[in-house]
Design a protein that fits this description.
- By secondary structure, the chain is mainly α.
- The chain has one domain.
- Helix content is 75%, strand content 0%.
- The protein contains 13 helices and no strands.
């Protein structure tokens, strides 16, 4: 989290570029997303995806309130870009729904690996929409990451499972959402972005959730709480990372989620980790280090 209320409340464009700060915020994102994957799989054993997402948004609003108050209260959450918030969160809601559904259909590591087609879409959109530059070193970093993911997944010929297609569609949706967040950080505070995410998605999901509602058991409640905490503050971390670096710098850091999720799958679900996974993880790490080093060298002094 930011160290002062003023820093949280100020528009993102006041922050100085810093790859180190971006990496630290992305570390928080990575930890939260790995835990979210495990909690999501456990919660969907009992509850419908629409209900999980609605509870996550409503509980998330309560969790976010201290930061809202610290940032100036609800008056400080006013925005002139409500249409952009609604558009971004409609896309993100659909992508998140697809992600949770795919989570119930395919292995953890495979889900996250397919999701990592997202940087390819993000890089293209960042150039086309944000005007970012896709230089040789950024391209090489993304390529190394994608090769690492391909080695881990080792796609076979034959029919593609529905869960894989859903995961791929979610990846495209997440890429669009990332670009829209980057545009919002030019004028909106991080807390405001997360606040409107939770508000919009609470409204979008209310009726679908009521259609499938069942009261969670004592065993399901802890997983729902974990989903709400990780789902809320992971996006706070991502938004803060976007404040300090371009999308084409931030997103490749997220490649580390593939080996980390594979490790979680091995620990909790006895999903094996083989030499291909280790090799792919090494390429992913190399791509991240290359991207950070070259971006740092070219940053304004």
């Amino acid at each position: 989290m930011a160290t002062t209320g003023d820093r949280v409340a100020q528009p993102a464009l006041h922050a100085h570029p810093s790859n180190l700060n971006a990496a630290l915020w992305m570390a928080g994102w990575l930890a939260a997303m790995v835990v979210l994957a495990v909690a999501g799989r456990e919660a969907t054993r009992e509850l419908a995806v629409f209900q999980i997402m609605e509870m996550r948004s409503v509980i998330g609003l309560m969790l976010l309130y201290p930061l809202v108050r610290r940032s100036g209260g609800f008056m400080a959450m006013k925005t002139k870009r409500l249409a952009q918030h609604i558009g971004r969160n409609t896309v993100h809601y659909a992508a998140q729904f697809g992600w949770f559904v795919a989570l119930t259909m395919i292995p953890l590591a495979q889900l996250v690996a397919i999701e990592f087609t997202m940087p390819m879409w993000t890089a293209v959109l960042a150039v086309a929409v944000l005007g970012e530059r896709m230089g040789l070193w950024k391209s090489a970093a993304v390529l190394l990451g994608l090769v690492g993911v391909a080695i881990i997944v080792r796609p076979h010929t034959g029919a593609i499972a529905p869960g894989q297609l859903i995961a791929l569609a979610a990846a495209v949706g997440f890429a669009v959402s990332v670009i829209m967040v980057k545009k919002l950080t030019r004028t909106e505070s991080t807390v405001a972005i997360i606040f409107w995410m939770l508000v919009v998605q609470s409204v979008l999901g209310l009726l679908p959730a009521l259609q499938v509602w069942r009261w969670p058991s004592a065993q399901a409640w802890p997983w729902v709480i974990v989903i709400a905490v990780c789902g809320t503050f992971s996006h706070f971390c991502m938004a803060r990372a976007m404040v300090y670096a371009d999308a084409t710098v931030v997103v490749p850091m997220d490649f580390l989620r593939v080996p980390l999720t594979a490790l979680a799958g091995w620990l909790f679900y006895a999903e094996g980790i083989d030499a291909f996974t280790l090799l792919g993880a090494g390429l992913i790490l190399a791509g991240n280090l290359l991207n950070l080093k070259r971006a740092g060298a070219s940053a304004p002094k």
